[in-house]
Amino acid sequence: MTVFILRRTLTMLVTAFCLTFIVFWLTNLAPNLEKVAKSEAGSRITDAEVESWLEKNGYAEPILLRYGQWLGVLPGWVIEGSDGITRGRCIQPGMTPEQAPRYCGILQGDWGYSRVFRMEVADVVARGLALTGKLMFWVLVVMVPGALVIGVLAGMREGSRLDRALSAGSILTTATPEYVSGVVFIAVFTSSAVGLRWFNGSATSAMEDATFANFTLPVMTIALYGMGYIARMTRASMAEVMTAQYIRTARLKGVSFPKVVLKHALRNALIAPFTVIMLQFPWLLTGVVIVESLFNYKGFGWTLVEASSNNDIDLLLGISVVAVFVVLVTQLVSDIGYALLNPRIRLS
Amino acid sequence: MEPLTWTGPIGTWLDPLLGVAAGLFGLSVLASLLVGMFIPASGPLPQPDGTVRLSQRPRRWAVLAVRLTGALLLLLLLGYLLAGLLLPYGEAGIVGAISRRFLPVWIALALTFALSFLFRRRLGLYGRLFDSTVGMIGFGLVMFWVYTALFAGLFGWIATHEPLTAISGLKNKPPGVPLPHAEVWGPGAHYLLGGDNLARDVFSRMVMGSWTVIQIAPLATLFAFMVGIVLGLPAGYRGGRLDVALSFIANLILAFPVILLFYLLVTPEIVETGLPSYMAAGLFLFPILFAAVLLWSRFRTDPKRGAILVAAVVAGLGWLYLSLISQRGTPLDFMGRFDLFDIPSGVLVVFVSVVFVNSPTVFRIVRGLTMDIKTRDYVAAAQTRGERPWYIMLWEILPNARGPLIVDFCLRIGYTTILLGALGFFGLGLPPDSPDWGSTINAGRQLLSIFPHPALVPAVALLTLVLGLNLLADGLREESLKD
Predict the structure, then answer these.
(1) How many Cα atoms occupy the beta-carbon half-sphere of B40 within 13 Å?
(2) Where are the alpha helices (H) located in chain A, listed in sequence order?
(3) Which of A23, A33, A263, B102 has the fewest CB atoms within 10 Å, counting from its CB?
């Protein structure tokens, strides 16, 4: 087990390295840097001015060198500009070059500075994560029990009318991407055209104070899309368990049907959905981005959109580090949890 | 001119009927669910002769009620469509007028279904699809959009107006609004589903949007399958270091949040560097590779015929490939006069990124299937015969993996459609005035709570297409498992 976790952690680190390097490379391609220069120093500057701005701010160095600096394994750049001011990667405003530390990368805990939000990246990401965490908490509270109940009800009597009705519902929700269900919800429940004004069409006010009126629609929009998928997996797993020998034995012994479902079948039927739920997290991230932009909820997904459309390099890197770790950690947890839940699986 | 109402004059007596039928159907479905839950399937009934009989009576009544009311509801809905086809323009309202516009699609659908149903015993898996209701519904939905796209895109039949022209005075107008200067009371006199925020026809944009989706989604999925198959087969069959390396790369791409990847790949700045063109050059090689290896592994023992075949296919596909990747105005432009066609650069970028995102998943599926199938006896027999690895992979393993692959292909087209919509929703790739469904939803969402129809119409269209693909995949899975 320890060897397994160690090996997985190592793979995880290598993956994170590669991914952050890809993001670093893509965001530092020449046209992207030009865009950064123009948005910082004015959009009408000449090519020569762009060049000198990039040089002055340390963007002209080789990309591997700068990636090392961002990681914190190489000393940060210090450049004396033609205007006589010494700028440096690690020199914060109000700091002389002598006071600044030599290394300032992600290993030293310095995530850089967000150009768009004019804040430390760590603060921006933490604020976004806190808000998205709140959203995700409620999504999971709605989605997981709902999906499991639907799946178990559908799978306990395969082919029954209840099963068919619930399965049709699950297919419908998996076919409805968030931007469709969100638009339909807003049109039906908040518009003056339909006239049911039950909920708010914007979740901006939910950032401070989440209420039933302003938080229901975003939560339901994300939860519905994932719910159908988990419910179908649960149904398949439940239907398979219900045909097992020990279920038949229990029925023949005279155990009542509800008792068979709850005591004998449920535990074994929930192993597969556990993995599925954990592996849903990366998908939920996409949903979060869409829903947060649609409902104007300024969490992690919204931050991602803002950072990418403005090519905010440091912030994008920070976001991808977090996103990649979420994905990889959930994969790891799902593997370990699967092995713990199912004694027939041995990790080697 | 009068605006059209939803159901027109016939609605005055058809609408209340529909309401009653829908209410009855809802009640009977609820009743049948309750009966199924609370009344046991078989209550033993003692008979006068001393035996015991199982009673199904309440259940049977419930089923009958659901069937009858369902049929009534369907008949009434069909009535609206038929009324639109038979009555003069406007008598059956917006629904009837739309039904009339879709006349070529109805004819094509009816022909497809009639022919397929007649010959379904001779059509293999496709024919068996018509044994499953779910599969038929899914197939019907998918084909509806395919025919709509083809007729609208190739012949310009179904749309009533140009998707890009605005008519002043119709900005955000509700469905059924008449054109300001229309004189003839006939097709084209109204915006059937209203105007959008730039005074363009929502109905025509929805119809033309299907053409964008049907052009990109199936082809992109096919390319993703080519990449996934060409890399997944050797990874699963050989294993070892190749497998480790390819799996690592696949997991790397899968660990990327899809939206972040799109934002990084599909911005104008990245397009300027030519990166998508280079990726296209790499990814589009796979179909040629696939075709060449497929043919050569089969005709290796007959080198003369094999060489000619392979050379012909490679030359043909190669020319297509070169014209595809050589684009005017991008860093890759070398074909000059021999360039057969140019794809708008936005479409190419979207295409490449969708293929790129989909192929790792296909790779994993193919790899898993290969690892499972390579332990079978017929693979061992082929190995004993002395067949080459590529022959075994492409002619022994791949045909036997087709069932799950076909099912996944349908699901993946749906997923690709969702991805395309997401790209449009974030305004990435395609030009902002493009009529594709994602961009239209994005444009309509600004004023969603006041004028919901411009966003709602494409949203429902996208939903029905993806639902159709999912149902089709379900039907196919059910039928292919019967073997």
Answers:
(1) 9
(2) 2-27, 30-41, 47-56, 63-71, 121-156, 161-174, 178-189, 212-242, 245-253, 257-259, 266-269, 271-294, 300-309, 313-341
(3) A263
| Beta bridge pairs of residue A120 | A113
Contact A327 B36 (CB under 8 A): no
What's the token pair of residue A40?
A: 């910082």
Q: Where is pLDDT greater, at A73 or B375?
A: B375
Q: How confident is residue B41, by pLDDT bands cut at 50, 70 and 90?
A: low
Smallest CA-to-CA distance from B435 within B107, B271, B214, B238 is with B214
Cα distances from B12 to residues B15, B78, B91, B194, in angstroms, run 6, 16, 11, 22
Q: How confident is the model at residue B40 (pLDDT cuts 50, 70, 90)?
A: low
CATH T-level topology, domain A122-341: MetI-like fold (1.10.3720)
How many angstroms separate the CA of residue A98 from the nearest CA in chain B? 37
CA gap B212, A175 in Å, rounded: 19
Task: Give yes or no for a contact between B259 and B347, defined as CB atoms under 8 angstroms apart.
Answer: no
pLDDT in tens, A39-76: 877 778 888 888 888 887 778 888 888 888 888 877 77
User: Which chain B residues touch A201 with a CB distance below 8 Å?
Assistant: 448-449
* Residue of A23, A35, A161 lying closest to B33 (CB–CB): A161
Q: How far apart are CA A225 and CA A312, in angstroms?
A: 30
A279/A283 Cα distance (integer angstroms): 8
What is the rounded CA–CA span in Å between residue B110 and residue B459?
26
Express each pLDDT in B90-114 by its tens digit.
Answer: 788 888 889 989 999 999 999 999 9
Collapsing DSSP to helix, strand or coil, A153 comes out as helix
Nearest to B467 among A23, A175, A190 (CB): A175
What's the pLDDT score for residue B63?
81
- Give backbone dihedrals phi and psi of B257, rounded to 5 degrees, phi first: -65, 130
- If you measure CA to CA, which chain A residue comes closest to B415? A175
pLDDT at B53 > cutoff 70: no
| Cβ–Cβ under 8 Å, residues B245 and B255 | no
Domain ranges of chain A: 33-118, 122-341
CA dist A125 and B55 (Å) reads 64
Residue A246 and residue A52: Cα distance in Å, rounded? 76
Q: What stretches of B266-401 show up as alpha helix (H) in DSSP?
A: 268-273, 275-283, 285-299, 303-325, 345-373, 377-385, 389-391, 398-400
Q: Which pTM value belongs to this model?
A: 0.89
Instruction: Output phi, psi for B194, to 5 deg.
Output: 85, 180
CA atoms within 13 A of residue B54's CA, in its CB half-sphere? 7
* Whether the Cβ atoms of residue B131 and residue B117 lie closer than 8 Å to each other: no
How many contacts, defined by CB atoms under 8 Å, are there between A and B? 152
- A-chain residues near B445 (CB < 8 A): 183, 186, 294
Share of chain A above pLDDT 90, in %: 15
Contact (CB<8Å) B459/A160: no
Which chain B positions have a beta carbon within 8 Å of A180's beta carbon?
A: 421, 441, 459-460, 462-463
Nearest by CB: B259 against A171, A286, A327: A286
CA distance B194 to B171: 9
Query: Which DSSP letter does residue B427 get?
Result: T
User: How far is the alpha carbon of B383 from chain A, nearest alpha carbon, in Å?
Assistant: 30
Chain A contacts of B39, Cβ < 8 Å?
none
Distance CA B323, CA B338 (A): 7
- Residues in B closer than 8 angstroms to A29, CB to CB, are 269-270, 273, 275
A319 touches chain B (CB under 8 A): yes
